[in-house]
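For the sake of clarity, the format in which proteins appear in this thesis is described at this point. The record quoted next illustrates the convention:

___
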Amino acid sequence: MSAPDADVVVELLSGDAPRAARVLVGALARETPVLASGTLTERFGGRVLLKAENLQRTGSFKLRGALNRVAGLPAGSGVVAGSAGNHAQALAYAASARGLACEVFMPEQAAVAKVAAVQAYGGSVTLGGESVDDCVAAARQRAELTGAVFVHPFDDPQVIVGQSTLGLELLDQVPDLATVVVPLGGGGLIAGIAGVVRLARPHVRVVGVQVAACAPYPAALAAGAPLSVNAGSTIADGIAVKRPGELTLPLVARWVDEVVVVSEEDTAEAMVILMERAKLVVEGAGAVGVAALLASLVKPSADGATVVVLSGGNVDAGLLALVARRHETAVGRRLRVFTRVSDRPGGLAPLLLCVAAAGGNLLAVEHVREAVDLQVRQTGVELTLETRGAEHAESIIAAMIAAGYGVERV
């Protein structure tokens, strides 16, 4: 499955290119920290560390590849790209630093915060298409029409070499590195990391993680060709790439030990755990490595450190709030119930006193008089309550039932 272009990347990663890129990239990009996670270590065994690339400038690892790619372009050049957001932000930032014009194509449903960030970095944005692949195709066409330099988000040797600088940092930061768990979209990040890590320490295990709504790599690796899949809606939009790269697929086949696929539910749970326990804001695409631990698809190494790469933190605030609320409901700290009370003055007061006596904190109350079975002089009431957990939620429901209220969970 080797291809000439892939062999070129192997040669680059085997030589001095990654170290040269590290110097070049380091002029603007941060060396992001590796953080110990007591929560994940205790829960899953083995020593689990988090490579907090979500703290990178522009909010993701993409800056590394973008900086390396534009470094050799002459002043006055223009660059164009297709991206769900992170590559777009990185390229806009890198182009601005080099004094280059930048235009990016983003999906119609791209996160508002990501679009605004691209514009803040000086890039112009065109929205359209349902996926990253659609945007990449549109960007290629624009480059042909305008003469701008097309910068692929992952299937480019210099981009991959730029991403490899993260792998060099891991080699320095984690002397006992045993396993690296990496989000896998197009494959540029994992190809760069795996290349430098496996060439330096062949025993290190590298695992890629895709999300179920868009996971082309397992079938493509089995077939030995970059097959496409239909992409569904996903909170991990940053890795929702429908087709592996012609360049990255053979590199993943060469250096990556395993590719696993996680669910939306586990991805959302991982985002909340990172926010609550590690105090890190991580987007869905960046959290899939932790999701793989939650789903027991990846087990930490018994000897040495397991590093989970948190590849980005560019998450829309509205989505983050939605994920947090969903988690609160799932663990019983947020309770929604429906009941019926007398539709007379003061009819609601006894219910609220009952809930207060049981220790529930009322967040919202709504009267429901339509589309429910009600008696004359009766109204439906939907309560949203904050509780101390699942056991407390059950005790509130029990108190309401004991007081004569019929209770239905919403």
Summary: The mean pLDDT is 93. The chain is about 45% helix and 20% strand. The chain has three domains: 4-57+157-325, 62-150, 332-409. The longest strand covers residues 334-342.
